[in-house]
């Protein structure tokens, strides 16, 4: 490997990291390799250390790293083809993946658009909704409603439905489409439905039904917008309101899909299905970038009857065979084991490990849902100090805003879970 300091110098001079300035002001860790749940860092003079990954590489690597089943799926597909265009062509990995997604997602989702990132999946979902209403002769239905505290990606239309005040996307307020926002859903997965909040939501949907194309939410777990959990009852309410007022319902399950919240899809907690669903992150087990937007036959048929009878979208790497092959392997690996037991084990481990922090100075709240653990502080976290404190405990974390949180791979054993909890505690104290 290249000299670490030389590599970091080149990185600082040329590489723009996510959510960072240019040139960078924080020195990143250099990862030399990864295996299981561990990241192996390169160090000066050949020195190395390992960190337990408490983030699943932004929630995607649910099976950890270098899993033999997933590695073999990539190698086998590479021996056939790495990529072909999807316009006018098709191939087995993509067809199998689409069929599997239809089988495992809630009825009546029937059709699958394979995108190349989560943000693009949301772009496609919103485009589907807008084009549907245009095609069926209701062009005035072009606005989108969501609740505050949400996050749906960093491309333009997804930014318009992210929290307009709590995130960085307020910079684009004068450029983005003006959407409708209701307050954040009341917190608490097990909390009863707040009738006053339900009334506010119902009134706003009824008032704007003639201009609303869709409602989009992150079901049960609001991720990067605040790591908040809410009752599945609000999803049932949204389904009822959308049916009553002729509005499409979109669930952004990019973060929650494939078991992270304790159900295979967060929609399953509520027993309802959206008209459009977005998937990503864990879709390929963290190996390659891929996402999917699913919709009902009604949405697809409506678009097909329009003046432009095709969905006007087509990424260059749509349906990439390598990504589709490893996605098939990842889903097979997940469903071929008792994944619910593993997620419950992680939930129990995080609950036990993080509970003592509830009484720690500076801690506002501690909450766990599925394989997600969150410690919310009463002040903005010092990310550099918190990250280094966790690293000293042998754990990789990426705090943000006022939160130190973890979403470990499902293969994390109990001993490593305890170490992750210790890393969260150290980061919370230092931050």
TrEMBL record:
<feature type="binding site">
    <location>
        <position position="281"/>
    </location>
    <ligand>
        <name>substrate</name>
    </ligand>
</feature>
<feature type="binding site">
    <location>
        <position position="398"/>
    </location>
    <ligand>
        <name>substrate</name>
    </ligand>
</feature>
<feature type="binding site">
    <location>
        <position position="314"/>
    </location>
    <ligand>
        <name>substrate</name>
    </ligand>
</feature>
<feature type="binding site">
    <location>
        <begin position="118"/>
        <end position="119"/>
    </location>
    <ligand>
        <name>pyridoxal 5'-phosphate</name>
    </ligand>
</feature>
<protein>
    <recommendedName>
        <fullName>Adenosylmethionine-8-amino-7-oxononanoate aminotransferase</fullName>
        <ecNumber>2.6.1.62</ecNumber>
    </recommendedName>
</protein>
<keyword id="KW-0963">Cytoplasm</keyword>
<dbReference type="InterPro" id="IPR049704">
    <property type="entry name" value="Aminotrans_3_PPA_site"/>
</dbReference>
<dbReference type="InterPro" id="IPR005815">
    <property type="entry name" value="BioA"/>
</dbReference>
<keyword id="KW-0663">Pyridoxal phosphate</keyword>
<feature type="binding site">
    <location>
        <position position="58"/>
    </location>
    <ligand>
        <name>substrate</name>
    </ligand>
</feature>
<keyword id="KW-0093">Biotin biosynthesis</keyword>
<comment type="similarity">
    <text>Belongs to the class-III pyridoxal-phosphate-dependent aminotransferase family. BioA subfamily.</text>
</comment>
<feature type="binding site">
    <location>
        <begin position="315"/>
        <end position="316"/>
    </location>
    <ligand>
        <name>pyridoxal 5'-phosphate</name>
    </ligand>
</feature>
<dbReference type="InterPro" id="IPR015421">
    <property type="entry name" value="PyrdxlP-dep_Trfase_major"/>
</dbReference>
<comment type="pathway">
    <text>Cofactor biosynthesis; biotin biosynthesis; 7,8-diaminononanoate from 8-amino-7-oxononanoate (SAM route): step 1/1.</text>
</comment>
<feature type="modified residue" description="N6-(pyridoxal phosphate)lysine">
    <location>
        <position position="281"/>
    </location>
</feature>
<feature type="site" description="Participates in the substrate recognition with KAPA and in a stacking interaction with the adenine ring of SAM">
    <location>
        <position position="19"/>
    </location>
</feature>
<feature type="binding site">
    <location>
        <position position="252"/>
    </location>
    <ligand>
        <name>pyridoxal 5'-phosphate</name>
    </ligand>
</feature>
<feature type="binding site">
    <location>
        <position position="151"/>
    </location>
    <ligand>
        <name>substrate</name>
    </ligand>
</feature>
<keyword id="KW-0808">Transferase</keyword>
<dbReference type="InterPro" id="IPR015424">
    <property type="entry name" value="PyrdxlP-dep_Trfase"/>
</dbReference>
<dbReference type="InterPro" id="IPR015422">
    <property type="entry name" value="PyrdxlP-dep_Trfase_small"/>
</dbReference>
<dbReference type="InterPro" id="IPR005814">
    <property type="entry name" value="Aminotrans_3"/>
</dbReference>
<comment type="function">
    <text>Catalyzes the transfer of the alpha-amino group from S-adenosyl-L-methionine (SAM) to 7-keto-8-aminopelargonic acid (KAPA) to form 7,8-diaminopelargonic acid (DAPA). It is the only aminotransferase known to utilize SAM as an amino donor.</text>
</comment>
<keyword id="KW-0032">Aminotransferase</keyword>
<keyword id="KW-0949">S-adenosyl-L-methionine</keyword>
<comment type="subunit">
    <text>Homodimer.</text>
</comment>
<dbReference type="Pfam" id="PF00202">
    <property type="entry name" value="Aminotran_3"/>
</dbReference>
């Amino acid at each position: 490997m290249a000299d670490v300091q030389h590599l970091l110098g080149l990185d600082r001079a040329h590489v723009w990291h996510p959510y960072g300035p240019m040139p960078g002001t924080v020195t990143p860790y250099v990862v030399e390799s990864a295996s299981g749940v561990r990241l192996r860092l390169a160090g000066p003079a050949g020195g190395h250390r390992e960190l337990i990954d408490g983030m699943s590489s932004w929630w995607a690597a649910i099976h950890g790293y270098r899993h033999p089943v997933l590695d073999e799926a990539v190698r086998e597909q590479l021996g056939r083809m790495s990529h072909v265009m999807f316009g006018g062509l098709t191939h087995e990995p993509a067809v199998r993946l689409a069929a599997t997604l239809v089988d495992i997602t809630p009825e009546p989702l029937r059709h699958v658009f394979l995108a190349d990132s989560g943000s693009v999946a949301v772009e496609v979902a919103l485009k589907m909704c807008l084009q549907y209403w245009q095609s069926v002769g209701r062009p005035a239905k072009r606005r989108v409603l969501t609740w505050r505290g949400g996050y749906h990606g960093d491309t333009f239309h997804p930014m318009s439905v992210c929290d307009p005040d709590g995130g960085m996307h307020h910079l684009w307020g004068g450029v983005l489409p003006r959407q409708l926002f209701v307050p954040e859903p009341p917190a608490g997965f097990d909390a009863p439905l707040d009738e006053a909040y339900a009334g506010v939501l119902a009134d706003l949907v009824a008032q704007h039904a003639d201009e609303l194309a869709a409602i989009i939410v992150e079901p049960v777990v609001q991720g990067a917008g605040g790591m908040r959990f809410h009752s599945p009852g609000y999803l049932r309410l949204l389904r009822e309101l959308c049916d009553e007022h002729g509005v499409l319902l979109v669930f952004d399950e990019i973060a929650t899909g494939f078991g992270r919240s304790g159900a295979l899809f967060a929609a399953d907690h509520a027993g309802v299905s959206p008209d459009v669903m977005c998937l990503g992150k864990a879709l390929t087990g963290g190996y390659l970038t891929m996402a999917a937007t699913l919709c009902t036959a009604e949405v697809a048929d409506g678009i097909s009857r329009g003046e432009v009878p095709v969905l006007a979208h087509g990424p260059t790497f749509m349906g990439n065979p390598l990504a589709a092959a490893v996605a098939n392997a990842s889903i097979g690996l997940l469903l071929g084991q008792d994944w619910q037991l593993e997620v419950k084990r992680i939930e129990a481990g995080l609950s036990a490990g993080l509970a003592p922090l509830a009484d720690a100075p500076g801690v506002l709240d501690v909450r766990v849902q599925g394989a997600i653990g969150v410690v919310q502080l009463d002040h903005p976290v010092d990310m550099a100090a918190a990250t280094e404190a966790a690293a000293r405990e042998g754990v990789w974390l990426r705090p943000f805003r006022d939160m130190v949180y973890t979403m470990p791979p499902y293969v994390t054993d109990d001993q490593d879970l305890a170490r992750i909890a210790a890393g969260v505690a150290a980061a919370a104290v230092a931050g």
